[in-house]
Structure formats: structure tokens, C-alpha cells
Design brief:
Radius of gyration: 25 Å
Largest sheet: none
Number of domains: 1
Distance between the termini: 37 Å
Oligomer: single chain
Order of helices and strands: HHHHHHHHHHH
Helix content: over 70%
Length: 255
Amino acid sequence: MTKMELAQLLPNYTVYELTLLQKVTALGMGGMLLFGVGYLFYHHWILSLALVPFAGYAPRLLRNYLMIRRRAALNLHFKQTLFSLSSSLSAGRSVENAFREAVQDLLMLDPEGGSDMIAELNIICARLEYAQPVEEALHDFSRRAGMEDIDRFADVFTVCKRTGGDLVEVVRRTSTVISEKLDIQQEIAVTVAQKKFEAKALLVSPLAMVMFMSLTAGDYMEPMYTGAGFAISTLALAALFLCYLWISKIMDIPL
């Protein structure tokens, strides 16, 4: 098997492919949600069905969400791997044994061994068994991960290994710097997550208000479902959608 064929089999963390079930589920849930919103605003099933085709955007939203969650987990487990490598090298273990020990350390945190970082460490260990240089395996991992911190670690590790530098000290300092950066990123992510929740609550509140008024004051809301009321409802939906795009843009903070 050539390197190109092997690269195609290994996971690429810059993309995420949904399964058929996930795509169908996303389309179905998105279609039902849009139909429900349409019926809430129009009380007309034909106009509500006109919104259903926009559910084609739902798989993309699901794919982006799952990819971000996967990359965040990989980033966190990479931080834990750095601590393990630093400890093993400080204890006098070889580079090869340090990576094997990192697998065992991560298995203590994830006994099922289903994390991507454990899989990547197993790949690196397997490559070491076939006498492949560890720096080459690290660079392949960093290329597929597409993360700045992993790229930097691979570059520093490679330079130190080739120039005969103090690998223990370099790995220790690099792991400390990267870990501090990851800690700051996690603090920012927690703050942003709180604001995202508040933004979602603000987006849902108009829908809840319309539903409440429709259930408790049907006669008062009746003009919204006839004549010019359709145009007003359409403008309200468009404004709500623009608010969603605006909030999503503001909350999209790259870490």
C-alpha cells in the first residue's frame, strides 16, 4: 500500500462526513421544525410546506457542529498527551516508549479507548514498529489535524530530534506553553458558550410569544393569518432569520 493510499484511509480532521442516517435525520428534523415554524406564523399548510426545502441546509449545520466538537475533543486530548510525553521523557524513557506510555495514560481517562487521540497514538506506535521516524509520523498527524498547536509541536520535536537538542527540556517547555494557550482557549470557549445560550434564548423567545398569543388570544392574532398579515409574517420571519445569521457571525470566534 502506497503512502497516498494510506493517507486516504487515515482520518482527516479538517472535514467531517455524515452517515446516511445522520443526513436523513437532519433533513427530517429540519423539515419538521421549519414546517412547525411556518404553520405557527401562517396557519396555512401550503405556505408552511414552502419552507421545508430550506431544510437542505440542516445537514451542513450538523456536520459543522460535529466537526467542531470532534476537533475540540482532539485538542483537549492532545494537551493531555503533551503532559504524558513530558512526564515520560523526564523519567528517562525513550521517545518510542513515551508514546506507548501516553496511550496507557489516555486509556485511564477514556477506558473505552474511543477517542481520536488514542487512535492517533496507536497509529504513531504502529509506524514506529515499522521503523518509520517518529517525526515523520508526527508531521503526518499534524497535516491531517490541521491545528496550529500540533503543527508547532511537530516542528519543534523534529528540529530538536535532528539537531540533538535537549529533547526532554524542549518537550517540557513546549507542552507548558501549548497547555497554557489551550487553557485560555477553554476559558474563552466557556464564556462564548454562555453567550451562545443567551442568543438562542433570544431567538426562541419570539416564537414562544407567537405561540402563546395564538393559543390564548386566537381572535387577536387572526388578522395575521389573512391578507396583509401574510406579508407581515414573512417580514417577521425574514428579520428573525437575519438576526440568526448576525448572531452566528458574532459568536463565530476562531480559537
